[in-house]
Amino acid sequence: MSDETTEILRLHAEKTEQGDRPARESIDALRADGAFALRTPRAYGGAWAGTEAIALRLSELGRACPSSAWLAGTCVTSKNLTTRCLPDEALRACFADPDALFCGSGVPRAHGERTADGVRIDGRWSYVSGCEDATWAGLGLMMDGRFSYAVVPTADLVVERTWHMAGMRGTGSHTLVASGVVVPDAHVRAAEPFGGRDLLLYGTTVLAPVVGATWGALDLTEAMFASDRKPFMTGYARMGDSPGARHWLAEAAHLARRARRTMLAVARAADDEDLPEAEIPRLRMELADAGRDCRAAVERVMDLHGTGGFAAANPLQRFWRDVSVGSRHPHLNPYLGIENYGTALAG
């Protein structure tokens, strides 16, 4: 990833948030930098990067603009599912442009019906990140009584702008609607349950932008310590003179580093083809723990900045809101993570 890409994302992060979708400049920069081809198969001109490489890339993007990184992550997920489910005939069409942005939802909120022309799809899917800018949408549906996966041109779908959130606003996670949309039969296939390594990949694509946002907040805090800012209503000449402030900074940095270490350890495990399925519940719980570490780190950072950190003009509050929302994605659910791990331990 080039420094130019991160600078473009940083410069347009506020525009991305205000528009409830990524800025065009950010989309163009991500595409040019190969972020949308991370999980395009090599046979079709992509990188087919491993989970660890994806985690590193997304976290660096998230350090500049968490919403933009989130889109690149959902593109990874959708392209992975597309590759796993569809036959070569469909893959050639979907990956004709290896840098195309994919969006999607695996929730089967629609049904498909076979017709003489292909498969007719009717339904609606909420929380589809990047749907206004994506070329293809990978969507879950029920067909012939089975959970199935379809890849549909987004131009054939209707976008309802329903995403108005406190954080991760720029992801444009609006609602997609299909009304009698017909796609070729090869673009719809029954889908098997997600494998454990795939689940770790999907969880990592959610966590990595959150880890990046945490480091973005820490960057701003370290810059504050390097400035002439001092703790309000104290005799200290600068923030670094305060033992309490130094302690809080150390805690925030420690939590941020622990979250990144955990993320990379899980990502390396996901890349191991011999990973035992019995390890998956523990690793998914660790992803959730890393999300909680991110929230705790950013809370320390907000304490150090005080009320000024919540000013609308301060980018710090955007990182705080993005971490708060992004770390609560279902893939990072802490109580279900513990529940599933406990179930596995109990046999």
TrEMBL record:
Native organism: Nonomuraea salmonea
Protein name as catalogued: Acyl-CoA dehydrogenase family protein
Family designation: Belongs to the HpaH/HsaA monooxygenase family.
Ranges where the Acyl-CoA dehydrogenase/oxidase N-terminal domain occurs: 8-72
Highest taxon in the source lineage: Bacteria
Stretches assigned to the Acyl-CoA dehydrogenase C-terminal domain: 208-333
The entry's keywords: Oxidoreductase
InterPro entries xref list: Acyl-CoA_dehydrogenase, Acyl-CoA_DH_C, Acyl-CoA_Oxase/DH_mid-dom_sf, AcylCo_DH-like_C, AcylCoA_DH/ox_N, AcylCoA_DH/ox_N_sf, AcylCoA_DH/oxidase_NM_dom_sf
